[in-house]
From TrEMBL:
Keyword Oxidoreductase in annotation: yes
Location of the Ketoreductase domain: 7-185
Record EC number: 1.-.-.-
InterPro entries: KR_dom, NAD(P)-bd_dom_sf, Sc_DH/Rdtase_CS, SDR_fam
Family under the similarity heading: Belongs to the short-chain dehydrogenases/reductases (SDR) family.
Name by which UniProt lists this protein: SDR family oxidoreductase
Keyword annotations: Oxidoreductase
Species: Halomonas saccharevitans
A Pfam family hit: adh_short
Taxonomic lineage of the native organism: Bacteria, Pseudomonadati, Pseudomonadota, Gammaproteobacteria, Oceanospirillales
């Protein structure tokens, strides 16, 4: 039997892109999914697709910038399935722009979703994972958590923070909590649609012509989860071969 069969997996930002692709992969492998994001129609239709294909999933509308909503997502997992095996902190946004434009509202949004959202996720599941003496937290960082790109100072700062947090979870998690930091390069999703600066959007969209499919990242996440319990896959970097 696969190591994924029967595992209860929470995915934030499940309504599109990497979250959605990962939900499909994990459902096929027998996971019980708890899907969170803000757009209810998307979550509903993803849940329906999964169930139609013989999988198990529930959803709960969740804004990860709201601590109580993230706690409620974790509670929904326990109510429906009795435990939480994996949290995939995937929700994120990338409104890139040069610092001089002072798009401070967008900086705050990135800090709120990309960092605080991840922290709220950790806080919502850690006590349950400690009680179970087992759990796995998977964070979506980025190649931008390893290298700073032009017009991406704040986004990169948030993804460096996520990488640091993943390592902290690994160190403090001990034998009970597995920690995986996933760092994708360019992947074709809706992520670039949050860029409000036209010139930056143009440059990024040109770069994203070589983007790979979201399923490439879903496969990496499946790999991390399906390892035996004493194997902790700490870091995966997945780039398109064409990415410089
Ligand atoms: P998408 O834009 O397709 O997906 C982002 C998801 O995050 C959506 O489901 C969105 O759902 C959700 N989200 C955004 N804000 C919130 C919020 N406040 N509360 C809850 N959910 C929220 O992009 P990707 O799939 O590409 O992004 C997933 C992750 O992967 C992000 O963390 C991103 O930084 C990371 N990443 C992506 C790369 C890429 O090239 N695509 C490269 C490296 C990392 P909704 O709007 O319904 O709330």
């Amino acid at each position: 039997m696969s190591e994924i069969q029967g595992k209860v997996v929470i995915i934030t930002g499940a309504s599109s892109g990497l979250g959605e692709a990962t939900a499909h992969r994990l459902a096929k492998a027998g996971a019980k999914l708890v899907l969170g994001a803000r757009r209810e129609e998307r979550l509903q239709s993803l849940r329906d697709d999964i169930v139609e294909q013989g999988g198990e999933a529930i959803y709960r509308v969740t804004d990860v910038t709201d601590r109580e909503q993230v706690e409620a997502l974790a509670e929904a997992a326990k109510e429906a399935y009795g435990r939480i095996d994996v949290l995939i902190n995937n929700a994120g946004l990338m409104p890139l722009s040069p610092l001089d434009q002072l798009k401070v509202d967008e900086w705050e949004q990135m800090v709120d979703v990309n960092i605080k959202g991840v922290l709220y996720g950790v806080a919502a599941v850690l006590p349950t994972m400690r009680e179970q003496h087992a759990g796995h937290i998977i964070n979506l960082s980025s190649v931008a958590g390893h290298v700073v790109f032009p017009s991406a100072a704040v986004y990169c700062a948030t993804k460096y923070a996520v990488k640091a947090l993943s390592e902290g979870i690994r160190q403090e998690g001990g034998e009970e909590i597995r920690s995986t930091n996933i760092s994708p390069g360019a992947v074709a999703t809706e992520l670039t649609s949050t860029i409000s600066d036209e010139e930056t959007a143009k440059g990024v969209n040109e770069l994203y012509e070589m983007a790979i499919d979201a399923d490439a990242i879903a496969r990496a996440i499946v790999y991390a989860i399906e390892q035996p319990g004493d194997v902790d896959v700490n870091e995966l970097i997945i780039r398109p071969t064409k990415q410089p």
